[in-house]
Write a structure and sequence with these properties.
By secondary structure, this protein is α+β, with helices and mostly antiparallel strands. The chain has three domains: about 120 residues, no CATH class; about 210 residues, no CATH class; about 110 residues, Tetratricopeptide repeat domain (Serine Threonine Protein Phosphatase 5, Tetratricopeptide repeat, Alpha Horseshoe). It has a four-stranded antiparallel beta sheet with strand order 2-1-5-6, with helices on one face. It has a two-stranded antiparallel sheet with strand order 3-4. The chain has a two-stranded antiparallel ribbon with strand order 7-8. Helix 5 runs antiparallel to helix 6, helix 15 packs parallel to helix 17 and helix 17 runs antiparallel to helix 18.
Length: about 500
């Protein structure tokens, strides 16, 4: 059964917005207009004129007062501003949009109606979007590539890139920096380490395989017009076999061509590094993925097993444990329908559900909580509540498995990365500062811990837990810098 929610609204309930492609604009509700303004201010959207009104967000964002007297806001598809138009995407203003993480932190407000007819008389809005994309590509992308070079090594060392335990989400790292996945090819060009490049290439390949298979499924659905599972299982197994077990050259040739084209790796080859030019060689992408080796103790795995894991997750199917064991030890010959345990849908939902589950589990089962927080981060990568709880729970998991060592550079880097992301939204969030200081205390970084704990109590003088943790760290430093930090505290809080 397929169910759809029906709202108590129609054309007659429209109070704010346009339902005729911007030819007219309704502004009949001060309450809804104020809500639109709040949305625009929070998301850093530029106010712009339309038919005598100042609007925030796209002109086709609609506000209704329903038959039940409640307010409804619908049609959010163009809420965020578009990137500049591209010759291959003449209608890109409808779907090629900046990510919210980038828009919210960009230095200028950006217009959701950029490159549409409603701002033709205000070209400065389009110019702002051109400058924003230039900043994204020239500043954000190189910085993200540098981070990925470090992060990929940490992920591999921390066993986050192991078949069956492939928890490293490279796309989320891009999203945290406000970078769309369509720019992965450009991120690839700036990366310097083979680990980061290969993981990016693996993700790009997985996405092309997903797109190709979904297109085939849509075509089959159009032909059959019946909700039967068997034809789609056959389509899935046939295509997966061509890629992983039969390794059909024609199938891989098309995949590689699509990777190079979709992610802009094929253009201006003569100006690119040798690593990028090598990708144009027949079979190069497949060879790189198959040649990538990760180890887990004495066991070694090739990169195509990671690709198989990623395809399972993206397409929502799961094979049984017997077949999966054959895949991982390299003896699987063919995927059959009977080996597929489940074929479902990928459902996206608000991160509040996964976050709440993680919160309930973090003290009793930190490993399960970590998976829930990980899932929550997929939908809102910069949510500070999820980030700080994820980081604290990660420390608990590591603490449970091994002693926390201050010179474990990978652990320190990963933990600081998570907490700094959480602090980007609100540098004075006392709870995040406290949890950061507490985590630094646990790994023996007492001097750094004191700095964050001072900021925590400065943000909220009555934060008792932060004061207790601060005094604990000062006790640790009593033989080193006790006098120094006591003076700092007295100077800050003597009043």
């Amino acid at each position: 059964m397929v169910a759809m929610l029906l709202l108590p609204i129609n054309n007659s309930t429209l109070r704010v917005g346009s339902d005729d492609a911007g030819m007219s604009y309704h502004a009949k509700s001060d309450s809804l207009m104020n809500k639109f303004k709040t949305i625009g201010e929070v998301l850093n959207l530029a106010p712009h004129p339309l038919h005598g009104h100042t609007i925030y967000g796209p002109f086709d964002l609609e506000g209704h007062v329903g038959f039940d007297g409640k307010e409804y806001i619908i049609d959010f598809s163009r809420l965020f501003p578009p990137v500049p138009l591209h010759i291959n995407h003449p209608n890109g203003f409808l779907y090629r949009l900046f990510r919210p993480e980038f828009v919210r932190h960009y230095e200028k407000k950006l217009c959701s109606d950029g490159f549409t007819v409603v701002v033709q008389s205000n070209p400065e809005f389009n110019q702002d979007l051109i400058e924003a994309e230039r900043y994204l590509l020239k500043k954000c992308v190189p910085a993200c590539s540098e981070l990925l070079d470090k992060y990929a090594r940490v992920a591999i060392n921390k066993k986050m890139v192991i078949p069956g335990q492939f928890t490293f989400d490279i796309c989320r790292t891009l999203h945290e920096r406000g970078i769309n996945t369509r720019y992965m090819g450009i991120v690839y060009k700036y990366c310097k380490t083979s680990e980061a490049k290969t993981l990016l290439l693996l993700e790009m390949t997985a996405r092309i395989i997903k797109q190709t298979l979904r297109e085939k499924i849509r075509e089959r659905m159009s032909d059959l017009k019946f909700p039967l599972e068997t034809p789609y299982l056959e389509l899935l197994t046939t295509y997966v076999n061509k890629i992983f077990f039969e390794e059909i050259p024609e199938a891989w040739k098309q995949i590689e061509l699509n990777v190079l084209t979709y992610f802009d790796l094929k253009q201006d080859v003569k100006h690119k590094a040798k690593e990028v030019q090598d990708l144009l060689l027949p079979g190069a992408i497949k060879e790189i993925i198959w040649g990538f080796i990760v180890t887990d103790g004495s066991q070694s795995y090739r990169g195509h097993l990671l690709l198989f894991d990623r395809i399972q997750k993206m397409l929502g199917f799961k094979v049984n444990s017997t077949f999966l064991k054959l895949v991982y030890n390299g003896t699987a010959k063919e995927l059959q329908s009977l080996s597929i345990k489940r074929m479902g849908q990928k459902i996206k939902h608000m991160n509040i559900i996964s976050h709440a589950e993680g919160w309930l589990l973090k003290n009793t089962d930190p490993e399960a909580a970590l998976r829930k927080f990980e899932k929550a981060r997929s939908s809102l990568p910069l949510n500070r509540y999820t980030l700080r709880n994820y980081a604290s729970t990660y420390i608990k998991v590591v603490e449970k498995k091994q002693s926390l060592i201050p010179n474990d550079q990978d652990l320190v880097f990963y933990m600081k990365h998570l907490f700094n992301l959480a602090l980007e939204e609100n540098p004075r969030d006392t709870h995040t500062l406290y949890q950061f200081g507490q985590a630094l205390d646990k790994i023996g970084k007492w001097s750094e811990a004191v700095e964050y704990l001072i900021r925590a109590v400065e943000a909220h003088l009555e934060h008792k837990e932060a004061w207790d943790e601060l005094l604990t760290c000062l006790a640790h430093l009593s033989l080193v810098d006790h006098h120094k930090y006591t003076e700092i505290i007295n100077a800050k809080f003597s009043s």
